[in-house]
């Protein structure tokens, strides 16, 4: 059996997936290759490297670096590019983040990779959001690529609630009412749960997941109104949600909050998707593999409370922000 490559292993999803593979002894460390593009990423991966994982340098802008990094790998976990600015201003096909993915996939083909697992996102496909556009294009590309492929629509992170909840600043936000451009239930899912479930998929025989598209989202969903109540309980003061139109949302965050206009206009279309309830997912695929490890999904309430408490501890000086 060839090795498994994790492209972007020092990022949030890649790192927890790597650690799940190691902690649960799903794959021998010597059969894992991690790519990173930065010195800080390489440093973060040092503990895994000391266990026998191979760390190789690769950069989105250097296709040849990925060809070298993927040598000897049979499987590739391709984590979507974090360079979201490529998607801004309604990037046309082939010019958004999918351009990064296409270069990595061409390199994987040249290196002899057989099976690509792609970290898509838990929206509809096609979606009203612009966030999903690069994922749609990459999923479509994969299906015609000649690879064995698996599209894993990773659940919207529990830990990302501040982004959806009006770009909320957990430590310093003094707003008692937070405007957003839309609302519905979301099947929030914690990063650690996604890491373990994804690791179990990667470690399984290729034929078990080849040609499949599925969601990894927990079954219990919460609206942004629910999140407002969780924040209120955790902070001990009321924080309300205010649903406005998308143009009103954009004007508020660009003019009043002084946020970057291309980013806000790209992000605001997420709320069009929420209005259509795209992110309430009914797919048991996450909870079944977690159960095999005796684990239940981490609740949204727990994540919100932990994040608020962590920021409070830093603010009060009980914990160093650099610890």
From TrEMBL:
<protein>
    <recommendedName>
        <fullName>NmrA-like domain-containing protein</fullName>
    </recommendedName>
</protein>
<feature type="domain" description="NmrA-like">
    <location>
        <begin position="3"/>
        <end position="247"/>
    </location>
</feature>
<dbReference type="InterPro" id="IPR008030">
    <property type="entry name" value="NmrA-like"/>
</dbReference>
<dbReference type="Pfam" id="PF05368">
    <property type="entry name" value="NmrA"/>
</dbReference>
<dbReference type="InterPro" id="IPR052718">
    <property type="entry name" value="NmrA-type_oxidoreductase"/>
</dbReference>
<dbReference type="InterPro" id="IPR036291">
    <property type="entry name" value="NAD(P)-bd_dom_sf"/>
</dbReference>
């Amino acid at each position: 059996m060839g090795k498994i490559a994790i492209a972007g292993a020092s990022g949030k999803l890649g790192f927890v997936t790597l650690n799940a593979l190691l902690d649960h002894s799903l794959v021998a460390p010597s059969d894992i290759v991690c790519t990173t593009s930065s010195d800080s990423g390489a440093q973060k991966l040092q503990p895994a490297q000391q266990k026998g994982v191979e760390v190789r340098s690769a950069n989105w802008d250097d296709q040849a670096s990925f060809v070298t990094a993927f040598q000897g790998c049979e499987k590739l976990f391709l984590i979507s590019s974090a360079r979201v600015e490529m998607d801004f201003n309604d990037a046309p096909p082939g010019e958004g983040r999918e351009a990064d993915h296409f270069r990595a996939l061409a390199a994987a083909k040249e290196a002899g990779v057989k099976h690509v697992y792609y970290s898509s996102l838990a929206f509809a496909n096609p979606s009203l959001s612009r966030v999903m556009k690069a994922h749609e294009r990459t999923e479509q590309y994969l299906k015609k690529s000649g690879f064995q492929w698996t599209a894993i629509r990773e659940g919207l992170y529990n830990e990302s609630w501040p982004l959806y909840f009006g770009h909320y600043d957990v430590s310093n936000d003094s707003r008692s009412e937070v405007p957003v451009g839309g609302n519905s239930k979301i099947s929030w899912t914690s990063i650690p749960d996604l890491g373990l479930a994804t690791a179990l998929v990667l470690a399984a025989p290729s034929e078990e997941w080849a040609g499949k598209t599925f969601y990894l989202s927990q079954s219990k969903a919460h609206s942004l109104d629910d999140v407002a109540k969780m924040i209120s309980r955790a902070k001990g003061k009321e924080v309300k949600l205010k649903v406005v139109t998308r143009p009103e949302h954009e004007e508020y965050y660009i003019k009043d909050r002084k946020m970057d206009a291309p980013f806000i206009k790209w992000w605001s279309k997420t709320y069009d998707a929420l209005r259509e309830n795209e992110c309430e997912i009914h797919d048991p695929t996450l909870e079944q593999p977690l159960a095999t490890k005796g684990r239940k999904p981490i609740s949204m309430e727990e994540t919100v409370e932990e994040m608020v408490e962590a920021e409070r501890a830093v603010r009060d000086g009980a914990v160093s922000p650099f610890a």
